[in-house]
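input
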Amino acid sequence: MKNQVIVLGSGCKNCQTLHQNVIDALAEMNLAVNLEYVTDLQRIMEYGVMSMPALMVNGKVVSCGKVLKVDEVKKLLSTK
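output
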């Protein structure tokens, strides 16, 4: 299965920061994954996420309502 990482957010500064931190973490880990940044509220609600920013890895919400640091993202990605 292809690894998929999705950042869910409204496009605010915190959401953009999480998105950039995920990009940085993937680069540092040398991982090639399908990264998507979803700002469409309808799609975000379909995932059942109520607080943003949120991070999904392979279809599972692994964090929401928190701006993860690069090291925190790397830890989550290494366990999935």
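quick obs: The mean pLDDT is 92.
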